[in-house]
């Protein structure tokens, strides 16, 4: 066998090994794997977390915002209800967001009005309103297909993953389709590719800086690459997780002006 033919065959075998058909040793379906990964991203208790967003353009910091977010699981839907209040910059302090069911509201203290907005609307850089909120992807998406694949994470470390093809299953889904990589040993999310309704790739997200927060290991940083403008990178950092039993009365449009900033 000639060397060129041998190299071609070896490359084909290697490619097949990297994208082998899905097979979970625990006998799980792709949807069940996605559910386990949701538990990594989200604490199982009502909580409060501080979020810092930074947009970089051509490697330089361009825009920044800080928010405090309150999240609580709705047992009737299995999805999170979210509240967020801007802390910085000063010009945005007091602005607030409410995400409940498939609805999202934005409060601006300047106009003293709450208006309906889209979760896909830009917040900073390539981070949308829906990106800063806690969500159970398994509630809004169906995992139609899965393969085993070895990929490099944000730090260049190779990870053995399940690659899931997620398709929106209801109107609350922020994106029409997502390609999602989950580490096999830990269920840690590693990477996501997010697509618009038109089918165009919008952005690529890498999940990193895992640390113990509340009841488990969680990604405390998400790096988002803008596929429409390659000069733009957005970083989301999450810190100061703490248990916080959010009062039910807070989940009303009228309460947004009263939402605490700490």
How would you summarize what this structure contains?
It is built from 3 helices and 16 strands. It is mostly beta strands and 262 residues long.
Q: What report would you give on this structure?
A:
- The chain has helices at residues 3-18, 30-41, 137-140; strands spanning 20-21, 47-57, 60-74, 79-88, 96-100, 103-108, 113-116, 122-124, 127-128, 141-152, 158-168, 177-183, 189-195, 201-213, 216-226, 232-243.
- It has 262 residues and is mainly β.
- It has a domain at 30-76 and 136-245: outer membrane lipoprotein receptor (LolB), chain A, CATH 2.50.20.10.
- Strand 12 and strand 13 form a beta hairpin.
- The longest helix is centred in the first third of the chain and has 16 residues, at 3-18.
- 31% of the residues are buried.
Index terms:
12% helix; 14-stranded antiparallel β-sheet; disordered N terminus; mainly beta; two-stranded antiparallel sheet; 3 helices; outer membrane lipoprotein receptor (LolB), chain A; single chain
């Amino acid at each position: 066998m000639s060397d060129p033919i041998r190299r071609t065959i070896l490359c084909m075998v290697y490619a097949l090994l990297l994208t082998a058909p899905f097979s979970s040793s625990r006998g799980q379906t792709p949807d069940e794997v996605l559910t386990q990964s949701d538990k990594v991203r989200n604490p199982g208790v009502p909580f409060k977390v501080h979020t810092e967003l930074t947009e970089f353009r051509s490697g330089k910091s361009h825009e920044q915002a800080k928010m405090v977010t309150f999240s609580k699981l709705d047992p009737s839907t299995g999805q999170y209800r979210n509240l967020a209040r801007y802390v910085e910059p000063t010009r945005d302090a007091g602005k607030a967001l409410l995400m409940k069911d498939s609805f999202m509201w934005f409060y601006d203290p300047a106009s003293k009005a709450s208006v309906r907005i889209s979760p896909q609307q830009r917040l900073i850089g390539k981070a949308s309103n829906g990106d800063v909120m806690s969500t159970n992807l398994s509630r809004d998406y169906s995992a139609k297909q899965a393969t085993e694949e070895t990929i490099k994470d944000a730090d260049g470390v190779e990870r053995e993953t399940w690659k899931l093809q997620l398709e929106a299953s209801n109107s609350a889904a922020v994106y029409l389709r997502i390609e999602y990589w989950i580490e096999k040993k830990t269920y840690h999310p590693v990477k996501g590719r997010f697509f618009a309704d038109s089918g165009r790739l919008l952005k690529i997200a890498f999940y990193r800086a895992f640390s113990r927060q509340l009841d488990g290991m969680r990604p405390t940083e998400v790096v988002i690459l803008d596929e429409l403008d390659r000069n733009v990178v957005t970083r989301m950092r999450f810190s100061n997780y703490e248990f916080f039993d959010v009062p039910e009365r807070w989940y009303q449009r009228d309460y947004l002006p009263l939402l605490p900033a700490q």
